[in-house]
Amino acid sequence: MDPTQQAMARLGAAGVNGVALTWVDNAGITRVKTVPTGRLAQTVERGVGMSPVFDVYLVDDSMTTSPHIGGPDGDLRLVPDLNRLTALAAQPGWAWAPVDRYEQSRAPYPACQRRFARRQAERALDGHGIELRMGFETEWMVTRAGEPAGTGPAYGMARLVELSAYLDEIVAALTAQGIEPLQLHPEYAPGQFEVSVAPADPVAAADLAVLVRETVRAVSVRHGLAATFAPVVDPDGVGNGRHLHLSLWQSGKNVCRDGDGPFGMTAVCEAFLAGVLRELPALLALGAPTPASYLRLKPSHWAGVFQCWGLENREAALRFVPGTPDDQGAANAEIKCFDGAANPYLVTGSVIAAGLAGVAEGLTLPLPVSGDPAHTRTGAPARLPASLPVALDHLESSAVLREALGEELYGAILAVRQAETALFAASSPYEIAAATRDRY
Ligand code: GLU
Ligand code: MG
Question: Based on the domain organization, do 264 and 352 belong to the same domain?
């Protein structure tokens, strides 16, 4: 039996009737088509049809247009990646696989975000022998009948007790799906929790971001709860981030450690991180992609709103984590300013593109910042963009990101960001939060 037939037999035996095929649009919404398990082989061969217009969809399901994409014409083929095929523990009867998107001619679709991420990972490996390991932290807030569920103290054991069965089922479902949870804990805001999972290559990390979120959502539904991953639920409170951890590896060694640079990083690691740090204002238009994102990005909220880096500094946008000497895998950097409205494939790909530019130019890091930059009297680092239009201006002048994304994808992203800016131009923070909190 070929691998696809084997996979179909395995799913059939496990009672799986349908496979959810997902991709994430430029507004950060995970969209789906499903096929019956029996049609999986055909779907791998021919793909399943989907309009390219979703690349210019907005968070409210209205659409805009861009120079290359938009309007009712045309069709794409969604082709599942069976390496990721997963029977869904909290959705009995269903399996999941992410897709790559192709033209009907089977030529690669230039605006496929997943291929963009893969292309950047390949550039890192082919050009510099760098393998990246990445992992997203997933934060969410959970409500029951509209009220936060799990309302004990921040990071409090009481919250774990309140939602014990729910949280247990999340760990069990992730584990049953072959995902290794690293940590799960109650976060700061009422009803807020976080789970992190083991690092993976950049495309797999983005796939996992999708799967982890939908698993948490599905378990929530089973418990009569509603989960939201939106940047803000209450504009006056703490938001949901989706921080990205990354480490660089060459010849099987973690080059975030055992070097002569700051806190033990090697020159290539320093240059890569310096490239990311330089590009952060533009990267924000991808990693904090909606007007709601900027309601979360407030100083002194652990969201990392200053363009600086620091050793274990949770108010720096870029936090370096040297790890412990006995743990080769532990040294890494965390980008804190990104949130769950972002398309994770755009995030992993664009961070690599920014880092590689730093490597190509041999950049070095400025001095690290310690303490809360909001309270530094002298030499305070620059504030990252405080609104989407400002981040967009930076994206528009970022040759590095524009070139990496390619004109089709770049144009569609720009159009979506401009249209969402216009959509919420007259809205108050409360109206923006209300319009977006149930969308992600
Ligand atoms: N919830 C915070 C955010 O908006 C992050 C808290 C933390 O450091 O885990 O990013
Ligand atoms: Mg957190």
Answer: yes
Q: 187 CA distance to ligand 2 centroid (A)?
A: 6
The predicted-structure confidence for 185-209, as pLDDT tens digits, reads as follows 999 999 999 999 999 999 999 999 9
Q: What is the pLDDT of residues 349-407, one digit of tens each?
A: 999 999 999 999 999 999 999 989 888 766 779 999 999 999 999 999 999 999 999 99
Do residue 42 and residue 165 come from a single domain?
Answer: no
CA 314 to ligand 1: nearest atom: 8
**How many domains does the structure of the chain reveal?**
2
Q: How far is CA 260 from CA 130, 161, 273, in A?
A: 18, 46, 15
Both structure tokens of 304: 């990392």
Find the residues whose C-beta lies inside 6 A of ligand 1. Answer: 139, 187-188, 238-239, 241, 296, 302-303, 314, 336
Q: Ligand 1 centre from 213 Cα, in Å?
A: 16
pTM metric for this prediction: 0.98
Same domain, 56 and 187: no
d(CA 302, CA 437) in angstroms, rounded, equals 20
Atom 7 of ligand 1, residue of closest alpha carbon: 302
